[in-house]
Structure formats: C-alpha cells, structure tokens
Amino acid sequence: MENLYDYIIIGAGHNGLVAAAYLAKQGKKVLVLERRPSVGGSLVTESFGEGFQVDSVWTGGRLRPDIIKDLKLSLPSSASTSPTAPLSAKPAFISLLSDSEHLVIDADPAKAAEAIKRFSEKDAGRWGEFVRFMDKAANILDIAYSTIMPRLPKDFSLSEGFWLMELGLELRLMGRKDMLNFIRALPMTAQEFMEEYFESEQVRAAIASVAIHGSTLGPMSAGTGYTLIHHWLNRGGLAHVNVGKAGEITQALADAVKAYGGEIRVDAEVARIQVDTYTCKGVVLANGEELSADTVISAVDPKRTFLSLVGPLNLPPEFVWKTQSIKMRGSVAKVHLLTDGNHGIPEGTVVLAPSINYLEKAYDAAKYGQISEQPYLEVTTSGNVVSIHFQFAPYALKHRTWDMERGTVEKLAIDSLAQHFVNLKSSIVNSKTITPQDLEATYGLTEGDLNHGQLMLDQFLFMRPIPGWSNHKTPIDNLYLCGSGVHGGGGVSGAAGRNVVKTL
C-alpha cells in the first residue's frame, strides 16, 4: 500500500466528522470513509416517502458550543442549541399522566414551578433549586468529558495529572454542599435521586424517565442518577432541541471537513483494518481497495472495531476478553408516523411516564427478552411527523424474531398514545418502524445500542470503553477510537471526536 493520507477516519457520524474537521483544519490530509450512502451515522435526517422526513435515530442534537465556534459551523438552527438562547426559544417537556392530565415543565423555571404547583406546593418551591443544581452538575460532567482520562490502572503521566487537577478544582468550586450532592447522585437510582427533591409521584416519574432514555436500565437501577445528569447535559435540560433537524448538524460538519481540505467518501465500507505486528498500516475496503495512512481513527463502536475490523488474532488475549465483556444492550425501537397534521400532540418533548412503578414495570419485561406492553414512550413532533422512541424493545427477543414483532411495537406505540390523543389513529398516513436489529444492520449500532456501550458506572470515565484504555489509544500503534463508545461519548455532543485530536 502507498502512503496516501495522514489520517483515515472510519465512520461519518458526528464524532468522526468532528475529529476530521479539526485535523483538516490543522492542514492534515484527511479521508473519512462512510459505508452508508450519506454522512451522519445515527445522527441523520432521512426521507421515508413524500413529506415523510424524520430524524431516524437520534431526535435532534446539541453539539458542544465550543466545537461550533472552533469549526465555524454554519448551523441554521444553532441558536436553539446555545446555552445562552432565550428560554422562550427552548421547548417544553410534557408528561402524560394516567388520568389524561398533562404536566408541562417549561424551560422557564418560573413557568415550570407554576405548573408543578398543581401537584405539590413543596415541589414547586424546590424546582428552582433542582434546576440550579442540575445545571452545576451537568457543567462538572461537561468538564469531565473534556478531560482526557488516565489509563488506570496503567501508566499515569504528569500531563494526565494536571488534567485531573483541573477537574478536581472545578468540583471543589461547586461548594461543599453541591460537591457532596453531585458525588452522591452519580451512583444513586433515579428514584432515590428524585425522592430527595420531590414528593409528587408525577414530577418524580417525569424527570426519572430521562434517566433511562436509551438504556437497558430502570429508574430503580443503580447509576441512573448519573445518566440523568448525562442527558440533562446533552439536552441542555429535559427536552430535546432541534427536532427534525439532526441532519443539519452532520451536514454542517461534513461541509466543514471539505472546506478545510478534507475528503469524504460514502458507500465506502471498511472491511478490515490493516495491522502488521501491532501497528496499524491502513484499511481495506469491502471492494478490495487498499488505503494507507499514518494514523487510523475509528468512530464505530469498540466491539465492531476490535472484534470485526482488527480481528482478535491481532490483539492481546486479555484485551479481547475485556472487549467482549463490554455491555451493549439495545432496548429501543423507533416508530415514525406521517400524519395529516391533526394528531393533537403538542410541540416539545412528550413522555408517557405516569409513575416510577410504571417505568420499572416497562423495564421488567426487557429483563426477560420481552417487549413492554405498557412501554415508556418519548415523543417529538416536526410538522406532520410524529417520532416515537419506544422502550423497552430488547435486541434479543425470547422465542420471537423482530421480523415477527415489528408490527407489535408499532401497534403498542400507537395504541398507548391514542389513549391520550384520540385523533392520532385517524390522522396517520404512513409509518416507519425501526427495530433494534435495524439499528444494528442499517446504522451500525452493535446490538442496537444507541451509545456504543451502556452508560453505566462501570463503563464511564476511565473505565470507558474498558479500564486501561480510556484515552482513545488502543493496543495497536497508530489506531485510535473516537466514537460514542469512548470517554466523552454517548448521545450527541462531539466531545469524543474533539478529544481524540488532543491525544494525537
């Protein structure tokens, strides 16, 4: 193979594109390879028919503001992603209750408190305090995600020590009370976390639903306190932003890569990462084409990178075993509906989460490989399109196949929502259901895991993707990781893509 590129990046999801844009901006010769016909990965807006355009997997997104600034991204909807955007521009979070009432939690704390007052005067009074703490906690997590983690229990360099000292200082600046509450919150269950702030079951359940979003965890699972803060950071609160416009983000990133001189190839599936004596030499495409580079960066998940593209025989046995042990537990299906516009669902982020017990029972079904008959739903609308995030829908079904159950998920989602919005069924014109196995086959999400690995206490910070390899490096020289499965990843932020550039 000839030396053609400084960097080859596998996967044109948002993290791969962020890394490529930063490197191209530095004047490096960069090639991004994407197996699908278009860029975006799982952060993509697609058409499934006339007038039927949806965010297929991730509902919108919120890139880090510093990435937008550094790369000079042109985002038509970036105003709503900014932390400084006016509260009136941010969507509401709406919880559907068992008695057909709606709890509307506005982005404006004063308006949210007024709505919460119907359920609890005490909770209304504590809402402002809760938002203040969550914003501070999310900021600490943001700094942590921007910090290159040391390769514990392996070598600990002086530079890594400085990075951790900065994180420790920011943690200390929270103040003793908030610092203690932040540390306590991480291992807590979402149920316990909510009980410390609120007495109303309706308020507790609405917020706890965000903690389990995209995970195979229930609100009574340890560590969902951490996932609640994680999602609050990535969303900028409870509700999604930029609904129906996920593709704008990745298209803007792709435009930046090209503007800085980088190259992007679609329909270019990587079949193998070329390794010679623990050194990466380049890649081989599915069509047999060989491409070389000084450095290869994989934005696909760690399991697929190491077990499929590198191959176990090119890796230390202990590393292979640890990689095989990464928990990938997809439990999400997506149901997209094209309507005539008379669906009746309000704008914002709508959840079906009437109680903590309801959410936990939905999770119980997934434990045994069953589809939740009373599912947790999170719903967003974009014009005539209704997008439904359905949990729990386990990747590995017991005694059934997803070809058999695709219609079951769609029916359950529609029937559950129709109990609250009576015009929904009659308004449906077309539909598209994406199962966990579709997420794997079409979007490259191993086992349908949206985050390239569960967001869990034993798979975050210096333990992501596995202990000893948390700084984007791998046992293969000149091979790095930058996808959601590494530290800083999970959801939409771009932190993992930016951080890998710091380690090169």
Task: Give a concise summary.
The chain is α/β, with parallel strands linked by helices. The protein has helices at residues 14-25, 65-70, 109-116, 121-145, 158-172, 176-185, 190-195, 201-211, 224-235, 246-259, 302-310, 317-324, 356-367, 402-418, 424-427, 436-443, 495-503; strands spanning 3-10, 30-33, 45-47, 53-55, 93-96, 102-105, 263-265, 270-275, 280-285, 290-298, 333-339, 349-352, 376-382, 385-391, 428-434, 479-481.
Descriptive account of the structure:
The protein has 504 residues and is an alpha/beta fold. It folds into three domains: 3-78 and 243-326 and 451-503, FAD/NAD(P)-binding domain; 129-235, no CATH class; 333-446. 37% of the residues lie in helices and 17% in strands. It is built from 17 helices and 16 strands. The strands form three sheets. Strands 1, 2, 7, 8, 9, 10 and 16 form a seven-stranded mixed β-sheet that branches. A seven-stranded mixed β-sheet has the order 6-5-12-13-14-11-15, sandwiched between helices. Strands 3-4 form a two-stranded antiparallel sheet. A hairpin with a 5-residue loop joins strand 5 and strand 6. Helix 1 crosses helix 17 (495-503) and helix 4 crosses helix 9. The chain starts with a strand and ends with a helix.
